[in-house]
């Protein structure tokens, strides 16, 4: 219970600078009546309680299992199972990632507003789900790539640079309205659920392989996971435009 | 009745979101590692917390943080336009950039995930990189990224020019920076934008694109998150480079002075 209390304090601390900046601007710059202050505080309390419960639950249930699996599979050395695990881990955690759910909803609303899709609940839900599935698929692929890199010892920098080149090249082919969402989805994917589990996989893997330094080889999975969604979302946009 | 039904529907939806990862973790644990759960009760409770927490969090975002992000964008745009002449140019939106900078800096400096990574970075660099300095450097990176992103939305210039230019800078920096810090710097970009910050920044961008005349939310409204992830990489690599050069110069001065004192003592 004391632990839970500490977590609440932690969530409040996370949110404080955000609320503070908004309040300072409302009071001193905009000087407008704070008619939405109550709604803001109410929503902030929801966010704090929700995020605390979410992370607490993750630490109770999913993180211990995920970490045990990551190290267990890495030690076993079955590459096929390891790759399957990496893909499913990336896919599953991305589907459950709160920030992506929220931003996909916003993207769908923007698409409906600009008549890119129909302004119905079903069309918006469809668009948001399609975006999330595409991103989840690309994070799964990123983790496969990352695991292969760690096992084979490929240089990270060269792969990142090739990824960058690919992103820029595919941008010239992509429909304009998918570029912004694609670039942003790279950053959205890596947060609350994905980062701890993926880091556990990377560090577990590189510490169980001989001649690997977990400090340099364990990292980089997250970097891949924020690179591939850009490529896949634009590729998906091109595909949809063709059909 | 309606409230209960709505809540149930919401919970059902978040259950569907969490189910894939939970199911696959449980299955792999049982079937491949062939381990039994020592505490199934705790896991069941944890799963319920995850589902309920996600639902409440998303509700809070929808109720408050998204509308406020948009409202701030709308009000700041309105104020900027009314302060300017007939046709506002990009400089008239300085309040928007200031707000973006404050949000980027404030949320990043308080980010707990950043503290953990910063401590790791100090370890890797053998103390050349300081934890508090790195946090400031990353926060400045995010702040520059978000405000530059707002400038881009206001001017309506293509996103990929900025991204491509930043990529070139990152690649040049990465080839000169100390080797151990490079993977860390790349990961840092993704880590620093937290679950709370991302939706608010997204709402700010979309709100801005909706309110600045001639901007299309779908084409111009995005990109703030991408900038917020990319610019910390640049500032961190720059900082690491400077820290290493300073360290080397210090070491050189030290060895020089030791050399001199050694020569002196020989005499």
Task: Give an overview in words.
The complex is a heterodimer of chains A (243) and B (267). Chain A is mainly α. Chain A is built from 10 helices and no strands. In chain A, helix 2 (37-76) runs parallel beside helix 8 (194-208). Chain A is globular, with a radius of gyration of 20 Å. With 267 residues, chain B is an all-alpha fold. Chain B contains 10 helices and no strands. The mean pLDDT of chain B is 83. Chain B has one domain (65-266). Chain B is 82% helix and 0% strand. Chain B is flat, with a radius of gyration of 24 Å. At the A-B interface, helix 1, helix 2, helix 3, helix 4 and helix 6 of A face helix 1, helix 2, helix 3, helix 4 and helix 6 of B.
What's a quick, concise take on this entry?
The complex is a heterodimer of chains A (243) and B (267). Chain A has helices at residues 2-30, 37-76, 79-95, 98-113, 121-152, 156-171, 176-188, 194-208, 214-217, 221-242.
Could you give the topology of this structure?
The complex is a heterodimer of chains A (243) and B (267).
Chain A lengths: L1 H29 L6 H40 L2 H17 L2 H16 L7 H32 L3 H16 L4 H13 L5 H15 L5 H4 L3 H22 L1
Helix pairs in contact in A: 1-2, 2-8, 3-5, 3-8, 4-5, 4-7, 5-8, 5-10, 6-10, 7-10
Chain B lengths: L1 H30 L8 H44 L10 H16 L2 H13 L6 H25 L3 H18 L4 H11 L5 H15 L5 H4 L3 H43 L1
Helix pairs in contact in B: 1-2, 2-8, 3-5, 4-5, 4-7, 5-8, 5-10, 6-10, 7-10
């Amino acid at each position: 219970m004391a632990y839970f209390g500490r977590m609440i304090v932690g969530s409040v601390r996370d949110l404080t600078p955000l609320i503070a900046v908004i309040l300072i601007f409302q009071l001193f710059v905009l000087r407008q009546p704070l008619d939405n202050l109550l709604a803001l505080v109410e929503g902030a309390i929801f966010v704090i309680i929700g995020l605390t419960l979410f992370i607490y639950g993750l630490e109770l249930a999913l993180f211990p299992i995920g970490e045990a699996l990551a190290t267990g599979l890495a030690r076993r050395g079955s590459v096929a199972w390891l790759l399957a695990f990496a893909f499913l881990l990336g896919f599953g955690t991305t589907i459950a990632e709160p920030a992506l759910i929220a931003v996909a909803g916003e993207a769908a609303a923007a698409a409906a507003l600009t008549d890119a899709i129909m302004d119905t609940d079903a069309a918006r839900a469809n668009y948001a789900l399609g975006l999330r599935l595409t991103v989840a698929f690309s994070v799964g692929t990123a983790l496969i790539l990352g695991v292969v890199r760690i096992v084979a010892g490929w240089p990270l920098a060269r792969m990142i640079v090739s990824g960058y080149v690919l992103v820029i090249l595919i941008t010239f082919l992509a429909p304009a309205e998918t570029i912004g969402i694609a670039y942003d989805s790279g950053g959205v994917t890596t947060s609350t659920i994905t980062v701890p589990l993926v880091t556990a996989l990377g560090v577990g893997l590189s510490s169980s392989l001989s001649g690997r330094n977990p400090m340099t080889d364990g990292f980089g999975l997250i970097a891949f996971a924020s690179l591939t969604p850009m490529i896949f979302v634009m590729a998906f946009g091109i595909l949809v435009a063709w059909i | 009745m309606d409230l209960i039904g709505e809540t149930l529907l919401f919970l059902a939806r978040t259950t569907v979101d969490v189910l894939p990862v939970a199911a696959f973790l449980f299955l792999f644990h049982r079937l491949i590692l062939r381990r039994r759960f020592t505490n199934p009760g705790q896991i069941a409770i944890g799963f319920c917390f995850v589902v309920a927490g996600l639902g409440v969090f998303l509700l809070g975002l929808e109720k408050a943080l998204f509308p406020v992000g948009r409202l701030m964008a709308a009000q700041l745009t309105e104020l900027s336009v009314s302060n300017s002449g007939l046709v506002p140019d990009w400089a008239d939106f300085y309040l928007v950039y200031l707000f973006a900078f404050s949000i980027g800096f404030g949320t990043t400096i308080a980010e707990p995930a950043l503290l953990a990574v910063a401590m790791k970075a100090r370890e890797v660099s053998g103390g050349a990189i300081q934890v508090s300095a790195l946090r400031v450097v990353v926060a400045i990176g995010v702040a520059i990224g978000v405000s530059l992103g707002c400038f881009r939305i206001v001017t309506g210039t293509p996103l990929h020019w900025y991204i491509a230019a930043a990529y070139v800078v990152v690649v040049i920096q990465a080839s000169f920076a100390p080797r151990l810090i490079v993977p860390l710097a790349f990961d840092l970009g993704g880590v620093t934008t937290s679950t709370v910050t991302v939706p608010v920044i997204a709402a700010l961008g979309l709100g801005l694109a909706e309110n600045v005349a001639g901007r299309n939310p779908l084409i111009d409204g995005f990109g703030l998150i991408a900038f917020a992830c990319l610019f910390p990489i640049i500032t961190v690599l720059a900082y690491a480079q400077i820290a290493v050069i300073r360290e080397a110069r210090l070491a050189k001065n030290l060895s020089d002075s030791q050399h001199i004192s050694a020569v002196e003592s020989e005499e």
